[in-house]
């Protein structure tokens, strides 16, 4: 009798639970990038005048990530910094990555965190794993957390499973792999994008074993990476091929871009780079075609709208973007919401449909501590209906028992 | 062990050891032949390598060279003034040039040497560099052929003016105007490292310019790189000089090759350049120095650029070579150390390194060592104890010959009378012939003398081939005929007691008894023939006669007994050791061989075993 009384409640509880978990897992299958901040670690491992191009490589990447919004406080720049003011430099105080001298990479506001002889293997590993003494300044630390996407770029002279640091020592690919594992265990990153431009670069990522790392290298084992061109006035090569074509692609990217890393990888061809570019994706959850360039190179945060209909960003990924139309796509991001932008002149039916669900920021009311699992209306009504049915059935069953006991007493 | 015993038994059975001993002279000759052949095969395809730049920092010709038309005008202006300076005194010239250098900010000073005249030099400190190192541009007023270096001087001052306007230098630039590219320049280099006040840091590299014509146009560039005493500049420096010259469109000539032969690149052209290279390397300092020899000995890499011909390229093209070379050297942070210091060039872009050519000189050393061994064991006196009087006398004679040679070398340094030296040399060759019946030595002594002589020569040659390969090869090959000189045995000596420990005198039948009965004429004729052969070989292998013959046949620069004069003055002026190599390395050996070629009397040998 007692069990019969508890049974309906039990059933009700089980039903509610299953529905909630169902909706939970539903939410998890939506691929939402969960980073909240982006960091960049840019390292040039060479010194001396004839390695001018390595300095130019790193400074070009520095300029790109800064332009796309990552602040200096989230960029760690490691350079030997002996090129701009070298007595052999015909243009003192300037570093160029092209013989047309269109951009002066060293022009203004370059903050070098580790310069000269501070660029060592030990400092690099300490930086990644954050093992410093107390007095190490915060500006020189990689203060990332589990929501950080880190873009790590390394250039210099490399070989089979090693990278030469400053003509004095070498770092092995196993060392970097272990450092990344430490970072994973200490929850110091959400995702890492590792790019390396040296000779035999692809060997550098061959030993990684931690999850959520995407790696790209400029050349295979036993293959050299080449410089792109020399500047006859400066008298040295000013940029490497791989970095040159990366920049060629990235110069078209701005903060609104919806181009993906797969587009970047597709732009690397052997005819341009003269070496075989390798990409390692097995450790990475998402497909590169779902990863925006701005997920790593820019400082863009995605917003999740609090609404009865769950909005998934993946809707956008179904559009086949072309470079020409990129800038006309409307992005659901904080910037545009804050500006209160509406679709205006450049709207498409899909965008309109989605825009109905977008609220402006002053109307948003996301409670951070709330349970993520919010039920949709249809699910709510289904649950209520089931509950009602069960209640009616149980009530009818209980009625018989009550009548029986009543009969007993009335005898 | 069983295998070794088996081998030993086989060898003994075949009588291998006695056979080898009997064939030792042949083996020695074969070694010498191997030495010749191993040098001669180097020009074959597959034995040599293409040149390459080892030091990545150099990057020759990656920077554009700007010494062009506007600088040409400046150069012509200076040259018109310099043309009139030919007959001035050296102080007037230096003062005028010094004032020009000071006009664009060079610090100048004049080094005065008692013996060798005045040398003007100027130091341009690099405004942005750290000033601890320097590059030298050296221009002799009169070049190696004693022609007035008009174009060179004009290039020197206009290049200096051009360099003073560039901010890219990380090393100081020193411009040197010396009277000649020989002792004057070398004395300046020595003074720079010891006594001069105005200096610019340690010198990394030097470029010597030689453009003796007053015309604007020249045809090709000769690059000389042989240093003194067997030193060569780092191959990187030579490679960048050649690479820059060819990049600018000019043809490179090595070792005085004329223009029409520059396009050839086959086995014979390479062999020719190889041979000329060895000759120039061995005789560097003795031949007319080009200028780069002056810098040898201080770890300064230097080359000389000499313009030849009329018409083709203009003088500013020649000037772009030192400009581009200085831009390349400017990139360096360390002294030249990456590329080879020992090499032989077969063509401007082809070379062999020491591992390819060294076996040749080693073969000659080994040939002499085998000859020495031959003189020791290939005769009846092999079993004489080591402390016998013959060995001691031989060593004594060797010591005396060393002293005599040293005295000769010093005498002729003080009294450079070459004619006297040559007559004495020739006269001494005839001594064995003249004194043939009167003076006799004992046969074992003759062999011992040869033994010591060849052993000594082999040691000298082995030590020399490390330092100055070409010289070692030269003396090894020229002195080799000495091994063909045979001991002349005549008559028997009286019974002779050997004063050693456990011998008792035993009378043995002398072999010569048999000979005496067979017709004296046959013996006499054989003896005469051998004596004449010995005479010829002695004449050919006398150091001074031999080197004079070599110079006359293989080099156009020398006439008569010039080379001996030059050898002496090379030591006195430039501290070139070749004179002493001949006198103290070769001459004692020759004197010993001379002593051993006197008629000798055989001696009875007491064998240790037979005690009857």
From TrEMBL, chain A:
Gene Ontology biological process terms, A to Z: attachment of GPI anchor to protein; GPI anchor biosynthetic process; proteolysis
Stretch forming the signal peptide: 1-22
Active-site residues annotated for this sequence: 157, 199
Transmembrane segments: 380-397
Pathway recorded for this protein: Glycolipid biosynthesis; glycosylphosphatidylinositol-anchor biosynthesis
GO cellular component: GPI-anchor transamidase complex
Gene3D superfamilies per the UniProt record, alphabetical: 3.40.50.1460
GO molecular-function terms, A-Z: GPI-anchor transamidase activity
Similarity field: Belongs to the peptidase C13 family.
Protein name, per record: GPI8-like protein
Organism: Saccharomyces kudriavzevii (strain ATCC MYA-4449 / AS 2.2408 / CBS 8840 / NBRC 1802 / NCYC 2889)
The organism's taxonomic lineage, starting at the top: Eukaryota, Fungi, Dikarya, Ascomycota, Saccharomycotina
Automatic annotation (TrEMBL), chain B:
Family annotation (Pfam families): Gaa1
InterPro entries: Gaa1 (IPR007246)
Gene Ontology cellular-component terms listed: GPI-anchor transamidase complex
Gene Ontology annotations of biological process type: attachment of GPI anchor to protein
Protein name: GAA1-like protein
Organism listed in the record: Saccharomyces kudriavzevii (strain ATCC MYA-4449 / AS 2.2408 / CBS 8840 / NBRC 1802 / NCYC 2889) (Yeast)
Designated gene of the protein: YLR088W
